[in-house]
Amino acid sequence: MIVKAIKTRKFIPPKDDLWELLSAIKSIQEKSVVAVTSKVVSIGEGRCIAISQITKDDLIKQEADKYLPRQFVPEELVMYTLKNNMLIASAGIDESNGGGYYILWPKDQNKSAQEIWAFLKNKFKIKNLGVIITDSRLIPLRGGVVGYSIGYFGFKPIKDYRGKKDLFGREFKMETSNIPDSLASAAVLEMGEGKESQPIAIISDISNIKFINKKYIDSGDNSFEIEEKKDVFYPFLSSVKWIKGGSGKNR
Known about the structure:
Number of helices: 6
Structural class: alpha+beta
Number of domains: 1
Strand order of the largest sheet: 1-12-2-8-9
Helix content: 10-25%
CATH class: Alpha Beta
Shape: globular
Number of strands: 13
């Protein structure tokens, strides 16, 4: 697998031209995945709120599906939230590289990924293409953030090993691979977290991926998104007193 980050001009909140920014991509090979950081997608959609308008904690409460008050987090560093069926700090709201604005998540990140996919597929006349929208998150009991995908389009997100045999003939019962987050982790490592100004990456020579030209439909055992109560981490998620948030309904 080859990951190449692409340097662009500075992208300016509260709104800038995402399609013009994507012109920094000069070529894409067949069967590649384009990673785009959620921040530039959000700025392209005008999903920015001036810091002077509202406190971050109040904005988090509005944007989250559920939130955990700051006082329950060590050193009150963040507010932990559930948003769009994902566990994330601060409902995905970011101030870094925001130029005096809070940057929210895209309104519908999978739809945004599909729109980018359609734009690039048409521009470069390629048949097989994937798109992921990336962000960063913490992993329990580990320092530092890693990249993950908050939206994707153009490929099946799960590689299923169940029913197959391992090296010693034992049948896999549970094993599946999470393709979007695995790709996002590699892409974000190359794009950087600071002032690199590399919000796009091209991932090529990928094995273990199946491209599709339609929305992936979650179904039963092949679901990518898992209901909270069916998740193996539910004992932890249910052990704290979440407060219902506004889910971004007013934005």
